[in-house]
Write a structure and sequence with these properties.
This protein is an alpha+beta fold. Helix content is 21%, strand content 35%. It is built from eleven helices and 27 strands.
Amino acid sequence: MNRVKIFLISLIFFFNLQINSYSKTIPSSFADLAEKLLPSVVNISTTTTITTQSNPFPFQFPPGSPFEDMFKEFGAPQERQSAALGSGFIIDEKGIVITNNHVIQGADDIIVRVDGDKEFKAKVIGADPLSDIAVLQLETKEKFKPVKFGDSDKARIGDWVIAIGNPFGFGGTVTSGIISARNRSIGLSRYEDYIQTDASINSGNSGGPLFDMKGDVIGINTAILGRSGSIGIGFSIPSNNAKLVIDQLIEFGETKRGWLGVRIQDVTQEIADIEKLDKPRGALVASVAKDSPSYKGGIKEGDIILEFDGQAIQEMKQLPAIVAKTKVGKKVEVKIWRDKKEIFKTITLGRLETSEDFKVAEKSATPNEKSVEKLKISVRELTSEDIKLRSLPNQTSGLVITKIQSDSPLLNTIEINSIILEAQKKKVKNIKDLNNAVKEVLNSNQKTILLVIFNNQNQRRYIGIKLD
C-alpha cells in the first residue's frame, strides 16, 4: 500500500514538473522594461510636396470649344505640403535610426523626436523599398541610448512581446501581446517573412520596434490588418532579415542582393505527380533570363530547384529570400529535379539591383492608366506603394484618379489623386467594378451614382454624382 502511495505521489510530481517546464511566468508588469526602452524609440514626422491639377477658372468651356485647348495650360500644377507620422528606433549612440521606407519615402523634410521633447533633423543614409527598410542619421553631435537586435529565429509562437511607437501621433506608446504566427506573407513586398503579433499596432507605429522580454529588437513593425485600426493582427519584419539589409545600407548606402535570373512558381500536387517527385516541394522554373547566372549555369525551364547552397526549398517563396541573402559573386551548388532524377549545377550569383531582369520588373510595376468613358476620367489601380506612401490601411483597394476631363461630371467635386473605394455601396477593386456600377446606374431611373472616396487628405467621403 505504501508503495502505491509513493508511486502516485511521484507520478503527480512528475506531471507537475512537466507542466512547469513547458510554461513561462506571465510578466507581472512591463514597467521596468518599458522605462528602459522608451528613450531609444523615436517619433518621426515628415513633410512631402504633393502636386495636383486644378481648374483656375470659376467656369468650364463646352466640350470641343477652341478655348478649351487654348486655356488648358493655365491649369498649372498646384503644390501643397502633406504631413505623415511614423516611428523608429536608435541602434547606435551616434544617432543612427531604423524605420520603414514607406515612412520617409518622398519626404522633403524628416524630423525625429527623441525622448518625448528633443527634435532633430535627419538625413537618409539608405533606403530599400523591396524590404521596406530605411536607415536615417540624426544631424547632431549628441550621444543617444541605442537598443540592440535579438535573434528573431529563436522567437516562438506564444512568446511575450511589446511594441513601442507613435500611434496617431500620440508619442511613446507601449503595447503588449504575444507572437501569433511566423513566416507570414501578405502581399505587400517582394520579400516577406513577417512575424505576426496581437500587440496593438496602429497608424503611426510603422517603423517602430517589436521587443522580446530581454529588451532586444526582434522585429520592425510594418503593417496592420484592419481599416479602422488595430484588430490584433499586426506584422513585423524579423530582425535577422532586417539586419542583413541594414548592414548593407549603412556600409554601401544601397543593397546588394544575390540574383539567379529565373522566374519561378509553386510545385502543385499535379506537377509533382507528373514529374514523379515524392511530394510537392521546391520551386518550378517557369523561365530563365538570357545571359543570367542560371542561364550560364545550365538551369533550364521546367527544372525544379530542390536545394540552394545546401538549404532545402520546401516552398517556392523560400527561394527568393534565400538567394537575396546570399553574397553576390558566390559560387553555390544547386540541386534540381530534371527528367525524374536529381542533378547538381554550380551557379555564380549575380547582383539583383544591376540586372536587366530587375530593371524591366521595376518598369512593369508602374500601373497602367485606363479611361472610364462615362465618367470622363482616367484611373489606375491602387498599389502597395500608394498605400505605404499615403499611410492608408493595408487592406485598402480602389482606383486612383489620374485625370479628370473638363466635361467630366466629377469636375469640381473630386480632385485628382483621390481614391475611389466604393461605387453604389460595392467595393471597387478594378476598373471593371467601376464600369459595372456606372452601367447599373445608367440603366436605372435614378441616374445618380454614389461613390465613396479617400480625398487628398485621406479623409473618407461619400459623393453623389449625377450622370447624364
